[in-house]
Amino acid sequence: MNINKLENWYADHHRKLPFRETKDPYHIWVSEVMLQQTQVETVIPYFERFIKRLPSIHDLAAIEEEKLFSLIQGLGYYRRFKNLHKAAKIVVTQHKGIFPSSFKEVRKLPGIGDYTAGAIMSIAYNKPYNATDGNVIRVLSRLMNINDDMRIDKNKKQITAINQSFIEKANPNIYTQAIMELGALICRPIHPKCKLCPLNSECLAYKNNLQNTLPNLSKKPEKKLIQYKVFIIRDNNYLYLRKRKEKLLGGMYEFPQFEEDLLPFDYHVIKVLGHKKHIFTHLIWEMKALEVKLISEPLDEWIKISIDDLKLYPMATAHKKIANLL
DNA sequence: AAGCCGGGGCC
DNA sequence: GGCCCAGGCTT
């Protein structure tokens, strides 16, 4: 690869982003965790609010988990932030609050895998450790015309090795951001802008008109459908929520919802508030929201809150949609 | 190696 | 409706 062309292209065309204004490893780390499986445009407002509220890793280590969840509600993959929180406490207690600077120590922290460790090492510390994400896999599988299924670990590792060989000849900080930026702006999943690409003269996919068939990503399994009745249980100015203990959306609050017809409480329906659908990675929720009056006793796991306090409880997007029906 | 874990943007 | 993701952890 002509690394100079890539780095020069980055110098001229990169987006100005809030997490590119800093070299603070804590800030880079927070941004990279937010960016896992999440688009830049989605992350920006969350990142700015997060850093304003928690400017240092000590602030993150000290915050209550529920307040942390309120800050990031809507971003998805909430376990990322349980791990982020846990890792901040480790850095404060075991590294005197100084974010570690060796790959080995960084990679050990919970929630930091190969990609995130490489991103932190290269972007924050300018060290030659590759950060190979979905963008890089797309760019390099096209550039080298590699048609192997990139959902298979072994094939991803092949790209990782190539990316590592490049970063060792590059300016690590610029290179890592440049190849991902190229993937985001030029070498896009659909409608890649090959005519504007600084690497088009050496791209084997472009040469063979295969840019629209690479990377080769095998199909994912079908999503399973689950239908829920969601209960808006009103009692004057109060209603009931529960905190999810499931792995899916764990820690977020929701209106009580049940899949089956046989329920552990009695109620009258006051009104059908509406139907909402929410699509996850591996399943689909179809939710029928019912405003009801409770006849029997509430369940122990429910908490009774004032309607005015609803916004104080972190909720995932599926149940935000239900809350918007109120 | 496969399954689990969110959400938004695009066509 | 179906496609795409700036991954990591568990089993």
From TrEMBL:
Cofactor note (record): Binds 1 [4Fe-4S] cluster.
UniProt-listed Pfam families: HHH, HhH-GPD, NUDIX_4
A biological process term (GO) from this entry: base-excision repair
Record EC number: 3.2.2.31
Recorded GO MF terms: 4 iron, 4 sulfur cluster binding; 8-oxo-7,8-dihydroguanine DNA N-glycosylase activity; adenine/guanine mispair binding; metal ion binding; oxidized purine DNA binding; purine-specific mismatch base pair DNA N-glycosylase activity
Family listed: Belongs to the Nth/MutY family.
Protein name per Swiss-Prot or TrEMBL: Adenine DNA glycosylase
Organism: Hujiaoplasma nucleasis
